[in-house]
Design goal:
The chain is mainly beta. It has helices at residues 5-30, 228-231; strands at 34-35, 60-64, 67-75, 78-80, 83-87, 90-98, 103-107, 113-116, 121-128, 132-137, 150-156, 164-169, 173-175, 179-188, 194-202, 206-214, 218-227, 234-242, 245-254. This is Cytochrome c oxidase subunit 2. Keywords: Copper, Membrane, Metal-binding, Transmembrane, Transmembrane helix.
Length: 264
């Protein structure tokens, strides 16, 4: 059968278009890393997320070497934590779950894009080679304020990254002549012990130091005993410094005759 040259041309063009469409759909499903939920991450009861060890205190944890894990909880209309910081030249596995309705966890400018379904844990492993800042957004309509659901991913140089956190408990007021305490809890989410020095600077006269070893994935509390007699009455600014992190506040020392609610 004789086929006209034009028909042969259009037939060839049609075949190319069909192959192109198939390639485009295949790339769209696989290439950018867009993924539906599977069973890799496991399941979880949305009503007991706070009881789960991984999601009770979501955030970044050092696994070992250049490997990290990040636990994230999505709910209308926010992510917890809303901002995540990881080091460059690292591999990070994200575990994301939802507390209420279906969301997505999409990191703009990367191939991270997955649905987040209540009862399921989305698992994604991504390599970050260079420092940069990326926006996090929800691509699944989740209610009236869906458009406000966003977060931020910071990839910083390795020498600027650590997982040390401070939490300080201190009285706001103490009576002259009494001893009071300022307690600082140092948390370490790295996979190795942290050996460092905690320093308390208070007023113009006192500077106290204590060496502390914080176990991997653990915490340690440092207690500073402050002699109010040495400080004298008045307001005294204090700063606790540990491994480059600081917390500050003010201690007011009063005379007993002034009726202050100081420590005994």
């Amino acid at each position: 059968m004789n086929i006209h040259t034009y028909e042969k041309t259009w037939l060839a063009v049609s075949m190319v278009l069909i192959v192109g469409f198939i390639a485009t759909v295949t790339y769209g499903a696989v290439g950018p890393g867009i993924a539906m939920i599977d069973d890799d991450g496991g399941s979880i009861d949305p009503d007991t997320i706070n009881d789960d060890e991984r999601f009770s205190d979501p955030g970044v944890t050092h696994v070992g070497g250049n490997e990290y894990e990040a636990a994230v909880v999505a709910q209308a209309w926010t992510y917890t934590p809303s901002e995540i910081t990881v080091p460059a030249n690292s591999t990070v596995t994200f575990y994301v779950t939802s507390r209420d309705v279906t969301h997505s966890y999409t990191v703009a400018g990367t191939n991270m894009n997955t649905m987040v379904v209540p009862g399921q844990i989305s698992e994604m492993t991504v390599e970050f080679d260079e420092p940069g800042e990326y926006g996090i957004l929800c691509n699944e309509y989740c209610g009236a304020y869906h458009h406000t659901m966003e977060g931020k991913l910071n990839v910083v140089p390795q020498d600027e990254f650590d997982l040390t956190e401070l939490s300080t408990e201190a009285p706001g007021e103490a009576q002259l002549g009494n001893q009071t305490t300022i307690n600082t809890t140092v948390s370490n989410d790295m996979n190795y012990d942290l050996e460092t020095t905690a320093t308390l600077d208070i007023g113009d006269q006192q500077s106290l130091e204590q060496d502390v070893t914080v176990p991997a994935h653990g915490s340690e509390t440092v207690e500073f005993a402050v002699d109010t007699t040495d400080l004298g009455t008045g307001d005294h600014d204090w700063t606790v410094t540990v491994d480059g992190h600081e917390e500050s506040d003010t201690l007011t020392v009063t005379n007993a005759t002034e009726g202050g609610d100081g420590d005994a």
